[in-house]
Amino acid sequence: MSHRLGMAMAAATLLAAPVHAADKALDYEFFKTRVEPVFLKKRPDHVRCYVCHSDSNSAFKLEKLAPGSTFWTEEQSRKNFQVVSHLVVPGNTDASLLLTRPLAPQAGGHAYHSGGRQFPSRDDPEWKILAQWVNGGR
Ligand code: HEC
Question: Which residues have CB under 6 Å of ligand 1?
Answer without folding.
Answer: 47, 49, 51-53, 56, 58-60, 87, 97-98, 101-102, 112-115, 118
